[in-house]
Amino acid sequence: MKSFCSIEQKFPEPGHSYLDSDRDFAQIEKLVRKEQNIYTVDKYVNLFAQSQKRSKPSVTLMNGKFFSLKDLPELLHLFNNHVNSSA
Q: H or E stretch including 23?
């Protein structure tokens, strides 16, 4: 279907792979390690909220919003009319 003109993939330079989000994830990991047991998603949501002192992070629950990639062509009524003869 050729929906894309180009696909661009970026790689960080060696020695410059630190991202701003790494600090956020480190704070969350620190709080999670302090917990004895975590049994619910709500507990993780609360830990995420506690991880930021300046602002309350927004957490979006994704229940029921995932699809199996194997089933996706059938759900979208797609078909492959090319045959791979090299296999």
A: helix 21-34
- Is the dihedral angle over the CA atoms 47, 51, 54, 58 positive or is it negative? negative
Q: How many helices (H) and strands (E) does the chain have?
A: 3, 0
Report how far residue 43's alpha carbon sits from residue 46's, in angstroms, rounded to the nearest whole number.
5
pLDDT tens digits for range 53-68: 777 777 888 888 887 8
Helix (H, G, I), strand (E, B) or coil at 6: coil
Tokens 């960080």 map to which residue?
Answer: 12
pTM for the full model?
0.49
Tokens of 36: 């004895």
The amino acid at residue 46 is: N
Cα distance between residue 38 and residue 36, in whole Å: 7
